[in-house]
Amino acid sequence: MRPAVVGKAVALVVLALLCVQACSAQPAKDRPDSRPSIPSAPYLGNRAYAVPDSPFTRKDTVVTATCSMGSRWGSVSVRAWDPETWQQRAEREFPIPSDAAFVNYSGVKAVSSPLVEFCGVGPYNPSPYGVATSEYMAPRVRALFDLAFTRMAVVLRDPHNKKVSHVGYVVSGANLEEVVRLGGAAGDDEQNAVMAPDGRSVWFTYTAPDGKQRIGSRSADGDHHLTDEGPAAGHGLPLTVTGKPARAVQANMVHLAPNGRRLTATAPKVFGTVFDTWNSSGPLTRTSARGAALLSGCVGLVGWLGDDRVLCRTSSGAFRTMDARTGRAVGAPVNVVGPQDGMVAEGMLVSPDGKRFIVSVHPPNAQQNDDDYAYEDPGFRAVPITPGGSPTPISNPFLDRRTVFVSWS
Fold first, then answer.
1. Within its chain, how far is the Cα of 47 from the centroid?
2. What is the mean pLDDT of the chain?
């Protein structure tokens, strides 16, 4: 890059950071920036992070997460797969501590956490976020881990006070009760724990002394002090942390575009599905949703096919490529199941080259099996984006109804 261009880029970043520092003290008074010379995002997604080499971070790798539950134990298995042969390349285990919130039940503090939705949703335990389709769940579960899948964020219930919850994290391969506890103050109300991309901090929503909900972070090392990151829209929306420096977005179905300058997201009472990224942390609101584009007929966001195209599941059940600038459909729809199949297909992941995507095919409304009173396992398929291609079944004993496809590098 030429020196003059570098100087301009540095100046823009400095201006953006100064704006964050000046505005973060009074988030409710933020106004859209009308200066056209300042870009919408001073960072390019997570590309600035140096990710250690491992089977989970190499190119042409699909990563899944599966929650396993026993009578007195629980764990999350993260597996790396070859997307051509669907042979397993590696596996990591994250034990769930006994005081971690992985299910909400009567008599204890209800906690909003992707881990609760991932492991604890069942016939009598609804999702803490309301909607638990694959398009909603996949980005929430991905946010539990750092980029290298070495740490998993957890919310911990205080055993002495059912109204108190703290955040922490578990390291891959740890023993069952080996958890790093980052909080512990009396009266803590910390929920929605997710990892920063580099794994060096846990981000969450919390209740401040004045009773308002905020977004905070705690360092994974050192004294774990609380850093206030900005306003929150209560505990009912999940967090996704991206970029360097890290920023949190509180919304559903968050997917960052490859160039890091736009993202998909949805939130109650917010019009639009594609937005410019912003330079501070906060919930998706009508104020922060400037520059929004509405993807017409899109009910499920699967991922980006490039910097300007998004794959959506439509209200008819088909999958469509949408122009992220105009919100209009591009090309023909891709039908994974037919109207007579009695099944629904939900998208979870798009390949990095934008040519394939992974779906979960299952009966409507998570229908129960009469034989064993358990939810039926879905059928996973890798589907070509171009209509007319043949889907590839993905089958393995380790892939079941508690499996989510979270990453394709």
1. 17
2. 85
Q: Is the sign of the CA dihedral 135, 140, 142, 147 positive or negative? A: positive
φ, ψ of residue 227 in degrees (nearest 5): -115, 120
- Entry field: residues in the chain: 409
pLDDT at 296 over 80: yes
pLDDT digits (tens, 9 = 90+) for 353-372: 999 999 999 988 654 444 44
Taking 50 as the threshold, does the pLDDT of residue 37 lie above it?
no
- CA-to-CA distance for 349 and 382, rounded, in angstroms? 9
Name residue 240's beta-bridge partners: 249
Q: Which amino acid is at 302?
A: V
Structure-block tokens of residue 158: 């205080």
Backbone φ, ψ for residue 41 (5° rounding): -145, 125
Q: Which of 288, 242, 286 is nearest to 268 (CA)?
A: 286
Distance CA 85, CA 122 (A): 32
Find out whether 53 and 90 touch, Cβ atoms under 8 Å: no
Residues of 129-166 as b/e, b for ≥16 C-beta within 10 angstroms? beeebbbbbbbbbbbbbbbbbbbbbbbbbbeeeeebbb
Give pLDDT, residue 334.
94
* Residue pointed to by tokens 């023993």: 175
